[in-house]
Amino acid sequence: MQTFHPEAHKALKDLRQKTEPRLTSAFKMNQLLSKTITGFFTLMIALALVLFVSAGTLAYWQAWVYLAVFALCVIIITAYLFKYDQRLLASRVSAGPTAEVEKSQKVIQSLASLFFIGLFVVAGLDFRFHWSTVSLGLVVLANGFVIISFVIIFLVFKENSYTSAIIEIADEQRVITTGPYRIVRHPMYAGAFLLLIFSALALGSWVAVPCAVCLMLSIVLRLIEEEKFLSSHLAGYDAYRAQVRYRLIPYLW
Q1: Model confidence, pTM
Q2: In whole angstroms, how large is the CA radius of gyration of the chain?
Q3: CATH code for position 151
């Protein structure tokens, strides 16, 4: 009959205590990676389908260029977050109307999603039916501004690990006053404004600009609600508002 010595039992217990957190961490990391990759390909395939189906052709060169620029920017930012800020990445990949807690935010986010899809549908239809024309130079310039908008979003992520996809306050959250937050109180939304307006033009469509404007208005509604929430729940936010006067656009609003 085999005996199991107490020393061996203790050694096995210590080994489990050391390895189980590592295995759990590795499992969570793999889950996050899988969810991130799935989300990325789902988004890109959806955008491509919407654009090319509405355009009725694959010969929509503005869409190919835009999708390449968009995908490259997203990959770079996602790779950075996966390496340096997985908590923030996890909160971002869980975004969407269903993730919101407040009913008003669910409605705003649902409308924003519709306008976002509408932008690409209208741009594709514009290409098919030749409703408007955007010059080659302006398409190239617009793609440059799309890149700039992603740079702004990246700087926000780099500066603020609490840029959750939903309106909430983390237990240890503090007011961020550095980086782009020195200029406006909502720099990520400012970057999103640039992205939306110039996405329409990068896709060769003036007709899609109103969809971008409607989406921007939904962002403004979200911003106003978010400011009320932060003022009530985040210590020091009122002082920050007094320090940085502009919400979204320097010297304007």
Answers
A1: 0.82
A2: 22
A3: 1.20.120.1630
